[in-house]
């Protein structure tokens, strides 16, 4: 892992809605590190050390049950803050954060973040906005998981969500599917075998096409027709 100061271009991308003074304050408190694939930033039930700001790459947030099963809550990309709720509340991290690919991540210690929030209403509002976004995202994901009647509907919801996230608003589009069938199963609460069977069925019905890691959805409305709730 290589540690270095925050790259200004990444700062503009991640902290672009903050004033120059607020960005500078955060930069001075942050240590940025390049992590390899599979690095654990923090673990579920671990005492909070600080927050992690994803500058580049992708990070998986997951929780584990007593039976050993894993549920992926979401995949985080550049611009998101991880661990803020635990740091502010002084409670254990509620999930495990693991890099999905080589990633550049900034770390700000708990004491430094709280100090910055007390001293700057702008930074406090910025953190609060991220917490609100996380809450809304969690509610939406719980709704999708609980109100879907079948694994097929959950998979359709997930793929339509990928289109929305990528900004594809047309009736057809393509996205990068950088998850294994096992990881997709962990996102929708089913087995790898079920995911493989469903994807094969979707292809047979021409609901999706796949070229390597590129997922093509030729008819969004056809895929959405599987979503009942």
Key words describing this protein structure:
25% strand, 9 helices, 229 residues, four-stranded antiparallel beta sheet, five-stranded antiparallel beta sheet, alpha+beta
List SSEs in N-to-C order: EHHEEEEEEHEEHHHEHHEEH
Describe the sheet with the most strands. 5 strands, antiparallel
Low-confidence stretches: 1-12
Helix content: 40-55%
Number of strands: 12
Which word captures the global form? elongated
Enumerate the strands of the largest sheet in spatial order, edge to edge or round the barrel: 1-2-9-4-7
Mean pLDDT: 87
Strand content: 15-25%
Provide the gyration radius in Å.
Answer: 19 Å
H/I helix tally: 9
How far apart are the first and last residues' alpha carbons, in Å?
45 Å
Can you put this structure into words, describing what you see?
There is one protein chain. The longest helix has 27 residues. Helices cover 45% and strands 25% of the residues. Helix 4 packs across helix 5 and helix 7 packs across helix 8. The strands form three sheets. It has a five-stranded antiparallel beta sheet with strand order 1-2-9-4-7. A four-stranded antiparallel beta sheet has the order 3-8-5-6. The protein has a three-stranded antiparallel beta sheet with strand order 10-12-11. It is built from nine helices and twelve strands.
């Amino acid at each position: 892992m290589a540690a270095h100061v925050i790259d200004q271009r990444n700062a503009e991308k991640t902290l672009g809605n903050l004033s120059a003074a607020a960005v500078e304050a955060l930069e001075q408190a942050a240590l940025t590190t390049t992590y390899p694939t599979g690095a654990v930033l923090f673990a579920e039930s671990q005492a909070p050390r600080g927050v992690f700001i994803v500058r580049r790459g992708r990070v998986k947030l997951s929780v584990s049950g007593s039976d050993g099963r894993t549920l992926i809550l979401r995949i985080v990309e550049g611009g998101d803050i991880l661990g803020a709720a635990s740091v502010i509340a002084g409670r254990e991290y509620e999930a495990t954060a693991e890099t999905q690919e080589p990633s550049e991540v900034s770390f700000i210690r708990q004491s430094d973040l709280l100090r910055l929030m007390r001293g700057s209403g702008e930074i406090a509002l910025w953190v609060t906005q991220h917490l609100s976004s996380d809450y809304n995202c969690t509610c939406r994901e719980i709704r999708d998981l609980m109100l879907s009647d079948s694994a097929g509907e959950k998979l359709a919801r997930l793929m339509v969500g990928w289109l929305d996230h990528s900004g594809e608003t047309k009736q057809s589009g393509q996205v990068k599917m950088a998850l294994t069938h096992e990881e997709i199963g962990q996102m929708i609460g089913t087995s790898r075998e079920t995911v493989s069977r469903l994807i094969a069925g979707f292809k047979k019905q021409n609901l999706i096409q796949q070229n390597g890691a590129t997922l093509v959805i030729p008819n969004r409305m056809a895929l959405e027709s599987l979503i009942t709730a």
